[in-house]
Amino acid sequence: MNKKQIINQLDTIALYLEIKGENPFKVAAYHRAGLALENDPRSMAGMSDLSKIKGIGKSTAQVIEELMAQGESSVLLALEKDIPHSLLDLLRLPGLGGKKIGKMYRELGVVDRDTLKDACEQGKVSQLAGFGKKTEEHLLQSLNEQLHRPKELPIPYMLDLAEKVERVLRSIETVSRFAHAGSLRRAKEKMKDLDFVIETADPEAVSRQLIEKLPIHEVVGQGDAKMTVQLDDPNQVSIDFRFATQEIYASMLLHFTGSKDHNVLLRRLAKERNEKISEYGIEREDGSVQTFKSEEDIYRYFGMSFIPPQAREGKSELDLAKKGPLNLIKLSDIKGDLHMHSTWSDGSHTISEMAEAMRSRGYLYACLTDHSQSLRVANGLSSERLLEQNEKVKKINEHYDDFTLFSGIEMDILPDGSLDYPNEVLSRLDFVIASIHSSFSQDKKQIMKRLENACRNPYVRLIAHPTGRMLGKRHGYAVDVSRLIELAKETGTALELNASRFRLDLSSEWLSKVQEAGVKIAINTDSHSLKMMEDMKLGVETAIRAGIEPQNVINTWPTDRLMDFFKNKKAF
Ligand SMILES: [Zn+2]
Ligand SMILES: [Zn+2]
Fold first, then answer.
1. How far is ligand 2, taken at its centre, from the CA of residue 437, in Å?
2. What class does CATH assign to 153-314?
């Protein structure tokens, strides 16, 4: 047993003791022993006399020695016999720890979710000391929510998990390279699980390290080609790790990226040539198997140009790729970001820090768009502060000859449809974004009146996050997107793809319609911090799903052309 596993076992003993209602000093002793091990830089093998280490007592030392020698602890085994294992599952409910679970177990006979639900419904939980009516209601609510747990989880949640897994994969030496596959690679808004394709010569060692380093609820299956685990997170997300040799890595990645429909089309194409395509490569009639260096090479083999993962949905992509390179936006087309916040409103960095970070991403320009005066929760700028900021931006801009910092604002469209600054203030800025941040429950007619007023203003160039949705959290307000697209077209206003992983607003479905209508698009991160700037990648991936061509996205344009767009809005 390694150190991490031993610490886990000590914590589990402490938890069981707590549930059992043992003396708190005894419980604390196990936690303290775990902490002492964690803080000691030596490996387990290097610690000879355990009870001499501060924080480890005589009895905890015995338990640790037993764990090291036998791989199990008789103390823990006895506790596991005594206390129902299903109680540990209740730890996933908000607000419950060992102490509270123990109380409900000992005094009410609660052993799992069902018995807890009964106890709550009968009002027994709120009568226990230390529990109130509120706690009982919360518990009941989350128990009911978990019953209707959505099968598909939103991309911000899954991206977060994937990034944690990627950090672990990067730390494993026997991993030559890896990529996420499946729905996440195709930038779908919702997905059921995560997939990774890993190139390694030693799948067993990689599996072992993944199990050691990831918070895992259960290893569902383990072999040389694949390991499936369930993560120890509130949704017990399942991850498939596929192991590939260098020769078959590209084929595996293509295969497990999907979509299913795209793979069906590829199989059909192979079949026409009396070949078979699979995760191992292309099998010819004579039984020989061809492997490929890259996904590009596989498409080339079929006489096609490369199809980016987000365009692999089994529609017309194969036919288009046979005709030549696809005209789809790429991350490298993006020349700047036109929506960001600084410490002047609710951002976490100064104007200079934000500008410098944008510049160091290789952008030619960025636009500062803090919040406007009515958004008091976000420290919105009064007209005076805005004009003062405008001067400051101009000064900062003087430092650069390879980068332009534009002066802008994210102006609130107020509940009655009026705008947050007079035109005379707006006329002093390079770029004006309008957006809705209040009175979300208004009916469609009023929401549309607000958006129409904004579009018809001669200075408003862009409507930001047009639907106000937050993925997995809220639907947004009652907007008629088709009508908004018409208004945008009529007034020459652009619409945003807000690339923040929490929003992706407009969705790729609507974005295709924006392009079809001939309305211009801006892909912006709405960054309130440096890290958020990275979501530009996700924004571009979403635009690829929508089939967006670079020339329709204003922040792919060179600085001069963008400035023309800033200046020439038809006056209404
Ligand atoms: Zn906003
Ligand atoms: Zn914003």
1. 10
2. alpha beta
